[in-house]
Write a structure and sequence with these properties.
The protein is 19% helix and 34% strand. By secondary structure, it is an alpha+beta fold. The protein has a single domain, classed as P-loop containing nucleotide triphosphate hydrolases (Rossmann fold). It has a four-stranded antiparallel sheet with strand order 2-1-3-4. A hairpin with a 2-residue loop joins strand 3 (68-73) and strand 4. The longest helix has 8 residues, at 53-60. It is globular, with a radius of gyration of 16 Å. The N and C termini lie far apart (53 Å).
Length: 105
């Protein structure tokens, strides 16, 4: 059996949200996410606002480190082999601020 192009197991990511001077609460963006994408397979990532889609993409593209779980991209483990992963992936982000810089000229 061929290894998956993307292999995510039990991925967890927590952010701390401040509620005042010393109080904070934990917000789980990802809690036990597991999926596998075969080489050549198309995979969609859907969900409502705040469901962790951007956090997952940022972890897969080496911009964010997960709190727990395992991520492998073409056999390379994240975050320990992030340099190798960066050589084999590409990421395009839609940033609303980018469009403000464009002109009709």
């Amino acid at each position: 059996m061929q290894q998956p192009a993307i292999d995510v197991s039990n991925l967890r990511k927590c952010f701390r949200k401040r509620n005042g001077f010393r109080k904070s609460t934990e917000v789980w963006a990802l809690d036990g996410v597991t999926f596998h994408v075969a080489d050549g397979e198309t995979y969609g990532l859907l969900g409502p606002n705040g469901s962790g889609k951007s956090s997952l993409i940022r972890i897969l593209s080496t911009l964010l480190i997960a709190d727990m779980g395992e991520v492998r991209m073409r056999g390379f483990e994240l975050p320990s082999q992030q340099d190798q992963v960066r050589r084999i992936i590409g990421r395009v982000s839609v940033d609303a601020a980018f469009y403000k810089k464009l002109s009709a000229r």
